[in-house]
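re: the backbone from monday

yeah here it is again, tokenized this time
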């Protein structure tokens, strides 16, 4: 990256950490700043924009998918605000059904998990595909958060709008994790980078990525007959009214419908 790159006559140069800090600051009219993960994603998009050497409009229009286009659109607009430049003369795209990201099919997810040769990545992808937890958080999971005795991925946290609730541990994934634990030398279960995950998935001839695994779980768990409220709860979504108070005693029973339909070993 050229550290001296500027947009128009903007006096600022791109300092990723300063930009992230700026995005996290509260904005006008009482608006909250961005969460750290969101700020980092926007900074990465701006970094790609700067490296591309394209004009702002050319860079954003290089994305055909409505979701990726909108992601670039918002990131570059944030950059324009940061540097005091006019915003893009473009519009946000509608995410109509034909542009939606389709969750992987069950047969493809099973094939990929079975064919990944790296046993650490295999366990990670399997865990992502069998819980409603976000892949970024699971990549940081530690052994004490896995309750093999009672069968839970025992993560219970809130980070801004992101909610992480305990999820049942799939019995096939438990076997994969127990095998890793026998030779574990770190408190972290997955002591590797995202780059290693991408390489392993490419080696298995798959375009699936960790975020697709969360989409898969949400989609296939519902198709397996699990209660919709239960799946929303496991995915960290907010539920209206008092329904959330009556979910805990049925989570394992509802999850079993998904577990029986989606076997890995």
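seq for it, each position gets an aa:
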């Amino acid at each position: 990256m050229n550290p001296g790159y500027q947009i128009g006559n903007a006096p600022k140069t791109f300092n990723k950490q300063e930009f992230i800090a700026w995005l996290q600051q509260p904005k006008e009219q009482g608006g909250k700043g961005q969460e750290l993960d969101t700020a980092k994603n926007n900074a990465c998009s701006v970094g790609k924009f700067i490296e591309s050497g394209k004009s702002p409009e050319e860079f954003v229009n290089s994305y055909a998918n409505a979701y990726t286009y909108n992601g670039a659109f918002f990131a570059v607009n944030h950059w324009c605000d940061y540097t005091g430049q006019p915003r893009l003369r473009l519009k946000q795209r509608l995410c109509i059904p034909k542009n939606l990201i389709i969750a992987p099919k069950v047969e493809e997810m099973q094939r990929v998990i079975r064919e990944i040769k790296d046993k650490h990545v295999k366990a990670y992808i399997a865990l992502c595909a069998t819980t409603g937890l976000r892949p970024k958080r699971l990549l940081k999971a530690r052994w004490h958060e896995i309750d093999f005795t009672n069968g839970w991925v025992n993560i219970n946290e809130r980070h801004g709008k992101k909610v992480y609730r305990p999820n049942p541990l799939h019995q096939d994934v438990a076997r994969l994790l127990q095998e890793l634990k026998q030779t574990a030398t770190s408190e972290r279960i997955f002591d590797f980078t995202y780059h290693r995950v991408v390489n392993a998935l490419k080696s298995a001839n798959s375009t699936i990525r960790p975020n697709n695994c969360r989409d898969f779980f949400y989609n296939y768990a519902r198709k397996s007959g699990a209660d919709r409220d239960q799946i929303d709860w496991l995915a960290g979504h907010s539920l209206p009214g008092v329904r959330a108070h009556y979910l805990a005693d049925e989570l394992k029973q509802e999850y079993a419908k998904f577990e029986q339909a989606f076997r890995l070993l």
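The radius of gyration is 21 Å. Residues 218 and 231 are 7 Å apart (CA to CA).
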